[in-house]
Structure formats: C-alpha cells, structure tokens
Amino acid sequence: MVLLLVIVGLISYYVYKSIIPPPPIPLPENVSEISPRIKLNDGRHLAYKELGFPKDKAKNKIIIVHGNGNSKDVDLYITQEMIDEFKIYFLFFDRAGYGESDPNPTRTLRTDTYDIEELADKLQIGPKFHVIGMSLGAYPVYGCLKYIPHRLSGASLVVPLINFWWSRVPQNLLNAAMKKLPIGFQLTLRVAHYSPWLLYWWMTQKWFPNSRNPKDTMTERDLELAEKHTKHSYIKESALRQGDYVSTQRDIIAGYGNWEFDPTELSNPFLDSKKGSVHMWCALEDKQISRDVLIYICDKLPWIKLHEVPDGGHYIIHEKRHFEAIIKAACS
Q1: Domains of the chain, each with CATH number or no CATH
Q2: What sections of the chain are H helices per DSSP?
C-alpha cells in the first residue's frame, strides 16, 4: 500500500509539474535602459518605440500591433520618404509578456485592446489613431473596433487570424479553413480553445504532433523573408525573453478562445463622420489564412475595404511594395 501511494504520488507530481507553466523569466534590472516603458493603471509596464514625425505635428498616427512571436522591433520597410510624404508618427509596442513588457496572467482580447488605448493616452498621442495588426496580432484590432471604436481614425487587418469558433461565420467555411492547416497546428488550436490550462503541457510534450513545419504553412518567399528578418532588427530571443508561455502561448489562448462577439456583428465606426476607413488585406497565396472566410466577413461588413494581393504569402507586410500599399491605404 505504501509503495502504491508513493507511485501515485510521484505520478501526480510529474503530471502537476508537466501541466503548470513556469513563472515568467524575470526582466533584467536595467530594463528601463533597454527600452522606454510606461506604467499602466494595474501596475504593469508596456515597452514601446516611437518613429517618424513628432506626435504633435503628425497628420497620421499609426499604432503597429506585432504578430505572434514578434515584438516592437518587427522589421518593416519604413522609409523617411514615406514618413515625410504622409507626416506619420509610428508607435510600436511589445504586447503583454513580449520583449520588455510585463506579462498579464489574465490576458484576453479585451485586456489587450485596453492596453492599446491606455498606451495611447499615457503617451498623449491624441484622441484618434489608426491601428494596424498583422496575423495573430490582428485580434486586438478586432477588439479596438468592438470596444474603443470612438478612438479610431482607421484600422487595418493584415492577413488576420481566423478564430474557428466564431459564432456567426458559417461552420462549413470555418471547417474548410481549419482542414487546410497541418494536423499538429489544428490540434494545438483545439487544445488552446477547449483546454487552455493544458496548452503549456501540450507544447512541451513529445508524444503527439503539436507544431508545424514552416514549409507546410509558408510560401518560398515567406521562408526567405522569415530568414532575412531573423538576421536583422527582429531578434526572436529578445521578443521571447520572458518565456514562451507568457508570450506566444498566452497569445494563442487569447486569439483562439471564446470571443464576446463575432466579427460580423461589428458596427461601422465611421458611419456618421465618414472620416476614417477600415482595411483588410488578404494574400491569395497565404497557406494559413482562408480567403473564403475573409471574403465572407467583408461581404457582411461592406464598410471594410478588402485588398487581395495575388502574389503574396503570409508575410506580405514585410515586402516593401505591399507595406507601402498598406500604409498609403491607411493614410488615404
């Protein structure tokens, strides 16, 4: 009996250690010397980076929301000519748990949205701003359209994520979109949605497929761009310095959890003033995001301007000509 209890105890301890994610890796004591940060009302800090025109003189104020596994140092083709032409002030920031921003243990789509609003207020960039979100980083942009539409001068969703549990998008479209993904990716999203408390164990266990081969979800050009950006300003180790769980895994849980709304229920934030626009960018060679789902959303919300990029993959925002087109549309 004693031996049995010992065995059960050891197994229970092993299971517990496997399921419970580790605490965040502490940021260095000189973190404020690495990056400027603002303190939020709940005590957390967000790290940020500013580029372009002074905010009090800028005609266009754009907040860039980075994607999964990325940071405020996302490598984009921002030229001085573009900044001068459109008088742009750019604000980049590390989302909760990324880079030098403190993690948020209760992070959700809603909290990420209000982080953006509070960051804008603390930096005094003005009452209106344009948000651009890429890939998984587009879910806070949906949140801005839902929760703080009065703060927007515009919004852009670049190859935005598809939550396969949206309530009003036809299930056959969502099922077809899911089936295009590698089985390991599908299983990871299902674990994140149905059993988020198991995601850390799922991402660290070796028994079942839980990840994807980049070649299965990226075009050849995507792979070239991915390799190029790891050699330049985007340093993955810095973006994920606090650990995968508080950054990338919490990202997946927030993006693919149960939303309080469906995108097709959104209202046009510029219906009365007509002084703003919303853009959705769909890459036709994208192996991760289904064109059919994005078209359905835009059909239901005709105030969203759909831009289809015939020769683009999931990394279109890192292509100079496509990024310039995204910025020009946002500033028009």
Answers
A1: 31-331 (3.40.50.1820)
A2: 2-19, 31-34, 80-86, 109-122, 139-147, 171-179, 183-194, 199-204, 214-217, 220-230, 236-239, 250-255, 291-300, 320-331
